[in-house]
Each structure stands twice: as structure tokens, then as C-alpha cells.
Amino acid sequence: MTAREYDVIVIGAGAVGENVADAAVQGGMSTLIVEAELVGGECSYWACMPSKALLRPASALRAAHDVGGAREAVTGGVDPSAAFARRDRIAHGWDDSAQVRWLDKTGIALLRGLARFDGPRQIVVAGDDGAETPVSARHAVAICTGSAALLPDIPGLADIAPWTSRDATSARTAPRSLAILGAGLVATEMAAAYASFGTEVTVIGRSGVLRGQEPFAVELVTESLRRSGVTVRTGTEVLSARRTPAGATLELSAGDPVTAEEVLVATGRIARTGDLGLETLALPTGDWLDVDDTLRVRGFDWLYAVGDVNHRALSTHQGKYQARAAGAAIAARAAGIPVDDTPWSAYAATADHSAVPQVVFTDPEIATVGLTADAATAAGRSIRILDYDLSWIGGATTRADDYRGHARAIVDEDRGVLIGATFAGPDVAELLHAATIAIVGEVPLERLWHAVPAYPTVSEVWLRWLEEYRGTGT
């Protein structure tokens, strides 16, 4: 059968693949996107959007409880069924027709099915009906298949049919009890969400909560989880799992066993590259793909790996950033335009190395960008740490009666610029982009002195940091 030919083929129609395809089309290239599940991918249906939808009701309720005058009007707790119904609306009922219409409008061709390489630039797509369609790319193929939940090799774990993050975000009802393996971002967010639904939650972490975050942020989140009724057990690991009449029982290396109606595995991610036929390209299957800063797989002049699949920064927003760089590079190379891959060019995903923003939507929110104090020290930077209690700021006082939060800035003393920031507190995600801009722009702190924060807002923390840095204050 003669293969259909396109300038660019994108494997995976999640947010990352959509952005690569859009950039290619904008560059005047005929583009095909291949998707085996839903157009819109993990973020739209099983990750970012539904998870934040499940967390929001409790967040809104806490905000009301934090303010006298609103607190008195609150008469109940989170309604799980209403929360799930709202989540369904935000996930569009797992119907991707709106995003398919966007592909049509944009001029991106869609082929549904599983993609498998059959040689350089050659792909066979197997549809649900078993039919196979060969396609080929004139210029580039971009792998945007993302990552999947890692299932640890624990005796009996697979037999109890544990939840992954997909199950947790798409569940129809809240279980009576939930044991969560892992203590990272997914684990803490889902612990917070399900605890708000009345589920008895136990978090089991081999190491600490939110490993790699600033200690003050870890302490605030751990304390909040425990206040909400979550049992947090760290320094232990699951030895085995089995189903009993009471539920799933987990034997631990330290302490008593844990029994729960459902078990959520949130111990990490693996690359979704195992069934792509990468062996035909002499690439290992099931591994993360190594790329340069233009997202081109090393050793190839036509193959790109964008988003989670390259393991540079596992987040939707960073994947979309990579997609913009990769799409621009693909179009430029196809047109014979030299690609500048030096730091901060339009074709290089430079921010992956030093300015990756992340938000953990727990109570309190944790918003970070750049390096922590420990990471900066380990990197040999000469740093100064600026700490400030957010409750001392006027904007915090008007926002809540008992505001609790903290902010830390990491300054590179040799250059006088910000290289890291961590915020912990209510709605601090909205403070993050200013820090990201300061780090990416390498704005001198002396210039930031002239960026005046509005009063009364929590953004005044910027002024307080600078006052501390200058040795002044009010």
C-alpha cells in the first residue's frame, strides 16, 4: 500500500503534540497528528484539568472559612457528587469533539490509531478496526507520547488492580478509604482532594513529602494534610499487597499494615515509548529519549521528542514551551533557514535547565521556579537566601483572618540576580510568573527595586525581599 506523505508527522495529540503540529502548520507545512486515545491528551482528561477541578471546591471553601463575614454563611462541607459533576464538565465528559474541530480549523490532519515506526520517517498506524495505514514524513517526525504511571515491582501489587493518577482523577465516587503510595506532587494533591470528600487517606512515602522542595514548604503541606485528617507515613515502603474482605492490605517495612478500599500508586512516571517500534531506528524501547535543546533526538536529523517523553521537565506548560521551540526548529530546517540553538533563541528550550515553574495545588499552594537553596549550593553557586513570612504583609491581612505562608528567594551573589523562588500560601500560584520573568530575564535586583508592587497585595513580598537584600526596611 502506498504511504500517505506529509511534511511533518506528530505522534500524540495531547497539548504538546497539538502545539508542535500548530507551529508546523503555521510554518506552511502539511502536518498529520496521530492519536490512539483522545485529542487533548493527558492534561485535558486525566491530569491537570480534572485534578485541579477536584481540588478547587475545598480551596474555595477554605477561602470562605478564612474570612469573618463569609465564614458565618458556610453551613456545610464539600459535596463530592457535585465536585465530580463539575469535574466532568471541565473534562468535557471525556469527549474530544471540540478539540477535533480545532484541528480541522487549524488545518492539521488527524489519524486515529496506534503509531509504530517501520523505518526512518516511515510509520504504520493501526486503527481500532485492525486496519493499518502507512504514512511517511518528508521532513520530521515528533514523538509527543508523554509519560504513564510507574507501577513498582511489589509482590501482589498488580493483582489488587491499584489506581493510577488516571483512575483518581476520573473516579465516579469517593472511596471510604484510600492508601497512596508515594508522597510527591500527585500523591499530595490527590490526598488533599479525597480527604475533602470525606475519604480516610493514608500517604505512604519511602522518603519525605515533596522531596526536593524547600523544607518550609514541605513542613507547611505536611502539617496541613495531617490537620485535614490525612495519615502521613514516611520512612517506610510497601513490601507486598493483597486483597482481603476488608479491602487491599499493604505490608510495610516499618509499622503496622495499611488496609484501604482503594490503593493509588503515585511513585513516578515512565516514558510511553514501549510500543512505538523504536527498535527499527536502533533506539531502546520503553526509555526516555535524549534530545538537544531544539528537542531533536541525538543522532537524528529528522526525529524529535517533545514533552514528558524526553524527561527534561515533566509538566504540560514546559512541554508546550518545548513544542513551540521544536515546531519553530522543524519549520526553519525544512526551509533551509539556519537554526540558532544557543541559549534563549527561539529554537532552544533553554528554560528547561534553570527556570522551570511548578505549582503544587495543595493547602497551602506551593509555587516554585529555578533553584532551591540546596540545589544552588550543590551547583557551586554563591548565594544569599531571602526569607519572608507572608502573614506580615498588608495584602495577606486583608485576604484572610489567619493567613499562613512563607516566601524564599535565592540570589546569585556573583551576578546580583534571582535564580530561585519558592512561595507557600493561599493562591501563591499567581505570584509565580513574576519570579519566572525575573529569573529568565536575569533582571538585576537593583532594577527590580523600581518595580513597585501594588498595595495592599501579597506581591509586596518583592519589596520586602529587596529591603532585606539592601539592608533597609520599614
TrEMBL record:
GO terms for biological process: 2-oxoglutarate metabolic process. Its cofactor is FAD. Residues 356-462 form the Pyridine nucleotide-disulphide oxidoreductase dimerisation domain. InterPro entries: Class-I_Pyr_Nuc-Dis_Oxidored (IPR050151), FAD/NAD-bd_sf (IPR036188), FAD/NAD-binding_dom (IPR023753), FAD/NAD-linked_Rdtase_dimer_sf (IPR016156), Pyr_nuc-diS_OxRdtase (IPR001100), Pyr_nucl-diS_OxRdtase_dimer (IPR004099). Residues 6-316 form the FAD/NAD(P)-binding domain. It is an enzyme of class 1 (oxidoreductase). Disulfide bonds join 43-48. Keywords: FAD, Flavoprotein, NAD, Nucleotide-binding, Oxidoreductase. Belongs to the class-I pyridine nucleotide-disulfide oxidoreductase family. This is Dihydrolipoamide dehydrogenase. It comes from Microbacterium thalassium.
